[in-house]
Amino acid sequence: MYIPSTRRLNTVRDFLRYAVSRFNEAGLTFGHGSDNAHDEAAYLILHTLNLPLDMLEPYLDACLLPHERKNLLNLIRRRADERIPAAYLTNQAWQGDFDFYVDERVIVPRSFIYELLGEPLLPWIEHEELVHRALDLCTGSGCLAVQMAHHYPAAEIDAVDLSLDALEVAAVNVEDYGLEERINLIHTDLFEGLEGTYDLIVSNPPYVDADSVAALPDEYLHEPELALGSGEDGLDATREILLQAAKFLNPKGVLLVEIGHNRDVLEAAYPELPFTWLQTSGGDGFVFLLTREELLGQR
Hints:
This protein is α/β, with parallel strands linked by helices. Helices cover about 30% and strands about 15% of the residues. The protein has two domains: about 5-90, Helicase, Ruva Protein, domain 3 (Orthogonal Bundle), CATH 1.10.8; about 105-295, Rossmann fold (3-Layer(aba) Sandwich). The longest helix is centred in the N-terminal third of the chain and has 17 residues, at about 65-80.
């Protein structure tokens, strides 16, 4: 492994050029916060130097201190050689205006569901005050639970995960946002042991099918296996959610579930269910909505 002399890399511009070249040379896979080598390099550099993440240009020709150059070289090396996702290197992930603590105990937040909370759900949840209880199944880092608390300020939220490790990370984020009194972290498997009913249930469950799990790029292998795969077709967890959700929803309650690229398989398996597919930045085939009445076959 070649390690360049820090004497040849002096400015932010130097390190940006070097990082982009190393990432491209290594053939890295992106998808944990950025989708190209330049943006990822810029993020890692700005974060490591404690500079504003949206303000690269003014600092491009700034000369770095010896310890800053050393830290950046190490970070670039780890990203390129070990293929560790950037979010794990910085322990930070963003969703919209929210940033969260993450590490390898949880998947890096990238659910489309956060885009749908609040105004996009107005056709089904007319007023935010109508959500008194909400549930986040497979909460992971707790990112969706935190954002639910923001969009539905009257709601008490249960955030469930099978992984105790994940719940430890979620507890950090719940505390960071001062939501300990509103978000209850629960260690269980989906609905097992839950009591009462909810006005809104959201879930970003494991949904990667077996063939895709076997072909995952190295970056994704740093994430917890439990949070990725879900049976041969990726729908084991989703089937259980569809089986049980109605009895945990209040009248006119809403279920929101993300399923990745499994729309065709899901619709073929449940031709009787009138799925509503919601538009997200990734398209309209990733997140479905069903009401309690639709789940029960009521009109």
